[in-house]
Q: What sequence folds into this?
């Protein structure tokens, strides 16, 4: 492995994430536990075998993970350090819209909240002389579109409401990918965050910036990114990824007896009314058995759920894509009302650890945003 000596970075290969804050990497053939300074899911980034860069942590673990390479491009994931970087960008005049303010404070209190920054002095953005800023580091992107958050966020919703209350607030989406052209709130993962943005969009300022990296991976500046706020209803499609630990046989309604070997299963479903209530239903044990999944989900462990908010009917095509990815359809499961082979697809290994899987998911989520 090569060291990026100027930045004090060490190159490694990512192996697995043990929990929110700890990952395993390989450095020169040896495995090391490292600190992950980001509470986001990062599921499309932290794929086993991906190239990463570490820096000394000075804490419990010798190293912390700072950069992940995605599609051959660096993504800085240190959420705490990104605030410091943005502070320096403002201070050094690298963000033109904020360059005319005279003083800059970090973590100013406001009632029972604490924002990231307070700018005072010469007015900017054609507003008053005092501006509260809440910064949201954004690591989720597909092609030239970025999105936040990558997990449900009650805290983010509270921050938007507090920015409205203070009378002069700005939410900034700090996109840690380069070459991004568009930003959307991630209504797929947190529809409540999206609804809150839409409710207060005329009452708070919003800005999105994509970073610029130099050859040493240092963030040297930003580019303004267009924010898109489409009007959507909470309907669409979803993937439920399950793990089955032990072999079992089950009577599944009119399908009869089916065998379920150990491994991973993806269930593809749709909800034409409220997508998120449907997901809530599937999290619970079923008193009545309405769908085929109701017969077997108590035998499965839910690994993750992946909602896709869309006004299009993509359920069958998405099931086909999961089979094309290498899965095997459980005959006619969940597809009694269509011509699909199956809407429950078996995989020997967990498919969420494949780049191809996330390429399909992100394409379905974002490809029609600017079309």
A:
């Amino acid at each position: 492995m090569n060291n990026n000596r100027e930045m004090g970075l060490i190159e490694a290969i990512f192996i697995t994430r043990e929990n929110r804050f700890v990952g395993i990497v390989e450095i020169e053939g040896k495995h090391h536990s490292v600190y992950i300074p980001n509470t986001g899911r990062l599921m499309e980034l932290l794929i086993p075998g991906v190239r990463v860069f570490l820096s000394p942590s000075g804490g419990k673990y010798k190293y912390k993970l700072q950069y992940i390479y995605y599609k051959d491009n660096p993504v800085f994931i240190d959420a705490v350090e990104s605030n410091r970087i943005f502070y320096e960008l403002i201070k050094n005049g690298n963000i033109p819209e904020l360059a005319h303010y005279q003083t800059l404070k970090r973590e100013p209190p406001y009632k029972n909240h604490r924002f990231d920054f307070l700018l005072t002095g010469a007015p900017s953005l054609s507003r008053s002389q005092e501006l509260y800023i809440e910064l949201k580091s954004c690591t989720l992107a597909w092609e030239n579109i970025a999105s936040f958050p990558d997990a449900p966020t009650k805290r983010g919703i509270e921050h938007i409401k507090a920015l409205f209350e203070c009378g002069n607030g700005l939410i900034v989406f700090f996109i840690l990918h380069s070459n991004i052209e568009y930003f959307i709130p991630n209504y797929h993962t947190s529809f409540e965050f999206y609804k809150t943005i839409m409710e207060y969009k005329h009452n708070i300022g919003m800005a999105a910036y994509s970073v610029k990296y130099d050859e040493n991976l240092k963030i040297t500046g930003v580019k303004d990114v267009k924010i898109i706020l489409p009007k959507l209803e909470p309907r669409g499609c979803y993937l439920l990824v399950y793990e089955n630990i032990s072999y079992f046989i089950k009577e599944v309604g009119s399908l009869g007896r089916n065998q379920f070997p150990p491994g991973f299963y993806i269930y593809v479903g749709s909800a034409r009314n409220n997508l998120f209530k449907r997901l809530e239903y599937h999290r619970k044990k079923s008193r009545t058995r309405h769908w085929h999944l109701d017969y077997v989900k108590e035998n499965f462990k839910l690994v993750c759920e992946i909602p896709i908010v869309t006004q299009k009917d993509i359920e069958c095509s998405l099931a086909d894509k999961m089979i094309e990815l290498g899965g095997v359809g459980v005959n006619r499961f969940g597809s009694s009302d269509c011509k699909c082979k199956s809407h429950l697809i078996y995989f020997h290994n967990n498919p969420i650890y494949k780049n191809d899987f996330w390429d399909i998911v992100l394409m379905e989520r974002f490809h029609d945003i600017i079309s």
In short: The chain has a mean pLDDT of 92. The longest strand covers residues 9-17. Residues 79-91 form the longest helix (13 residues). The chain is about 20% helix and 35% strand.
